[in-house]
Write a structure and sequence with these properties.
Helix 1 packs across helix 2, helix 3 (90-104) crosses helix 14 and helix 5 (165-183) crosses helix 11. By secondary structure, this protein is α/β, with parallel strands linked by helices. It has a nine-stranded mixed sheet with strand order 3-2-4-7-1-8-11-10-9, sandwiched between helices. A two-stranded antiparallel sheet has the order 5-6. The chain is built from 14 helices and eleven strands. It folds into two domains: 9-123 and 222-233, Thiolase/Chalcone synthase (Peroxisomal Thiolase, Chain A, domain 1, 3-Layer(aba) Sandwich); 146-216 and 243-397, Thiolase/Chalcone synthase (Peroxisomal Thiolase, Chain A, domain 1). It is globular and about 60 Å long. A hairpin with a 2-residue loop joins strand 10 (376-385) and strand 11 (388-397).
Length: 400
């Protein structure tokens, strides 16, 4: 019977570059920076790494969609390296694969590293997804945009739960304002300026009700993690962080093809969360989870994720937002580093960046944004759109 990954592996070192529009940096230099920080943090040398997993989605580092760029950038000595890509969950997929390899005994020390240089390839604004129509729903994808898809999630949510346009937009604005406030405390974040609720409410519209500050930006950066077996972690450091759950779930497009989906939530997130809690042994996430880093590609995504992960009851997330439940000093701080909204979203690196924040928070090393005594932290990635997506949910703890 499957046992899961709980307490079988640990992170002993992590690195993360500053995120931003890094015109003067190459993907290789970003990967090298994150890697050097990670191995220094772990107290190991390059020669100690047995295998690596590399996550990146777009063309700047895609030499035939291979892992060769990472080997070349880091000068890794003829070890096995696998390139993984799973939309915005690619970084989580790299950590998951490296963890499984270590847990199996196939290797002792594994590297997971993600990097992205989106500005160099012109990715931004409203990207054209029509090239995806060959493998996705042909009636929808020729005209799809990400803001449009998530805007429909927002309007349907407002309607079902009786939020007026003003109430709905203000709730979303509070979420974005919270993330900007946290990002202002985070030295490596892309956007480090506080933005008040009224400014967000009155910002230019992208796809109603999502305005400029409801959408995360296009970012560049890299993050890395060093993984070993849990029983070996104490040999490297006194404060390793242990994997409690590493889950991926992928929508079979039921939401598009059938009518059971109500359009107010992300079913794949809910299913993935259920599996993660089961693997971690979490019975009551609202009481047991101490912090979250979720995939706030849009403010509405964060709102519905509160409910999909069974933290807020269905239709009641607004009440928790109003009460400050997810603020830095709240019951379960969400986006303590600013999230995608403020820290940034280099697609292949984001899942590892989320783990980086959880890792540092569980070690008590986040300075003025440090959360009070956290023991369990959760990350959540969403790649794709509400009705068909890949979801990654991980849970980490600082105790065995």
């Amino acid at each position: 019977m499957a046992e899961g990954i709980k307490n079988k592996v640990a992170i002993i070192g992590m690195g993360c570059t500053r995120f931003g529009e890094l015109w003067d940096r190459s993907a290789e230099s970003l990967a090298s920076e994150a890697f050097e920080e990670a191995i220094a943090d772990a107290g190991i040398e390059k020669k100690d790494i047995d295998a690596a997993w590399f996550s990146s989605c777009f063309d700047e580092v895609n030499v035939g969609k291979s892992a060769i760029p990472l080997a070349g950038a880091l000068k890794l000595p003829f070890i096995p390296i696998t390139r993984v890509e799973n939309f915005c969950a690619s970084g989580t997929e790299a950590i998951r694969a490296a963890s499984y390899a270590v847990a199996s005994g196939a290797c002792d020390v594994a590297l997971a590293l993600g990097v992205e240089k989106l500005k160099d390839i012109g990715y931004g604004g409203l990207p054209d997804f029509s090239q995806l129509r060959g493998i996705y729903n042909r009636q929808i994808y020729p005209n799809v945009t990400a803001p449009g898809q998530f805007a429909m999630l927002a309007t349907r949510y407002f309607d079902r739960y009786g939020l007026s346009p003003e109430e709905g937009k203000r709730t979303l604005a509070k979420i974005s304002s919270k993330s900007h406030a946290n990002g202002a405390l985070t030295p490596k974040a892309h956007l480090r300026r506080k933005v008040d609720v009224e400014t967000i409410m009155n910002a230019p519209m992208i796809a109603w009700p999502l305005g400029l500050f409801d959408c995360c930006g296009v970012t560049e950066g890299s993050a890395a993690a060093i993984i070993v077996r849990a029983e070996d972690a104490g040999k490297f450091r006194k404060d390793p962080v242990y994997a409690k759950a590493l889950q991926i779930a992928v929508s079979p497009e039921e939401e598009y093809r059938y009518q059971q989906w109500d359009g107010t939530h992300v079913e794949t997130t809910y299913r993935c969360g259920v599996n993660a809690y089961k693997e971690a042994g979490v019975k009551n996430p609202r009481e047991e989870i101490n912090m979250m880093e979720v995939h706030d590609c849009f403010s509405i995504t964060e709102l519905v994720t509160y409910e999909d992960l069974q933290i807020s009851p269905r239709g009641k997330a607004k009440e928790d937002v109003d009460a400050g439940f997810y603020d830095l000093d709240g019951k379960i701080p969400c986006q303590s580093d600013g999230g995608l909204k403020s820290f940034g979203h280099p697609i292949g690196a984001s899942g590892i960046r989320m783990a980086y924040e959880v890792y540092k928070q569980l070690q008590g090393k986040c300075g003025e944004r440090q959360i009070r005594d956290p023991h369990l932290g959760l990350t959540h990635n969403l790649g794709g759109f509400p009705a068909n997506c890949v979801i990654g949910v991980t849970i980490w703890g600082n105790e065995l």
